[in-house]
From TrEMBL:
Organism annotation: Acorus calamus
EC code: 2.1.1.-
Lineage of producing organism: Eukaryota, Viridiplantae, Streptophyta, Embryophyta, Tracheophyta
Pfam assignment, any one: N6-adenineMlase
One Gene Ontology CC term in the entry: cytoplasm
HAMAP family assigned: Methyltr_EFM5
Cellular localization per UniProt: Cytoplasm
Name assigned to this protein: Protein-lysine N-methyltransferase QJS10_CPB15g02170
Keywords: Cytoplasm, Methyltransferase, Transferase
Principal location: cytoplasm
Length: 223
């Protein structure tokens, strides 16, 4: 990510509430939060025909670290945080209570309403990712939408099978050092950003879904 995107964040330390490990909360370190927030900012400005970043609403599913970093980069980006921890009600109307055990128990107005959806399932289990994947599908606009998943390396095959996502070279890090290696997965090729796509073998169904999505998105991404 270009340094200019980071400068406004670097001027002042972003303040976060303390982690609650009972809720499986582990905040990203500063470099990770700035990198992902910068990528989201870029995705919100991919359309040359739109002059307002608010035209590309962003949903953050269980990844509250990103909210203040995105808002510091561009306060005009429309961001909705879906989170179980009600301490984040301090974000007002930008907060929606979310329990991954009820993946589609969300306001009807949110269905297929978001251009960018970023998710970080709270647990590294098949059941948790399957339910969060249902939430992502509920939130994303049917066309020209971008999906990013931050989760453990162990979820690589499931991320491909459930959402048609590819792993990127960038490795997210957390303020509290975790034993599990984390990855970023996307439904679009970030080219030279996020470390680019890694070349891996995907199941045929996932590969076809990903290729169809990529051909559509490439028409709308400015290089």
């Amino acid at each position: 990510m270009a340094k200019s995107l980071l400068s406004s964040v670097a001027e002042e330390e972003v303040k976060l509430v303390s982690e609650d490990w009972r809720l499986s909360q582990f905040w990203y370190d500063r470099e990770t939060a700035e990198t992902v927030a910068g990528e989201i900012r870029r995705l919100c400005s991919v359309s040359a025909s739109s002059s307002s970043s608010s035209s590309f609403p962003v949903a953050l599913v269980a990844c509250p670290t990103l909210y203040p970093y995105i808002k510091k980069l561009d306060p005009n980006i429309s961001v909705q945080l879906l989170e179980y921890d009600k301490r984040f009600e301090e974000y007002g109307s930008d907060f929606t209570f979310y329990d991954y055990n009820q993946p589609e128990d969300l306001p009807p107005a949110m269905k297929h309403a978001f251009q960018v959806v970023v998710a970080d399932p709270p647990y590294l289990s098949k059941e948790c990712l399957e339910k969060v994947a249902r939430t992502v599908a509920f939130l994303m606009r049917p066309q020209h939408s971008f999906s990013l998943l931050l989760t453990g390396e162990v979820q690589k095959e499931r991320a491909a099978e459930l959402l048609g996502l590819h792993p990127c070279g960038f490795r997210p890090q957390h303020s509290s050092k975790l034993g599990n290696e984390f990855r970023v997965f996307t439904n679009y090729d970030p080219k030279d950003r996020l470390g680019g796509w890694e070349h891996v073998e995907l199941p045929p169904s996932s590969l076809n879904a990903s290729l169809n999505m990529q051909s559509t998105l490439e028409e709308h991404i400015k290089e």
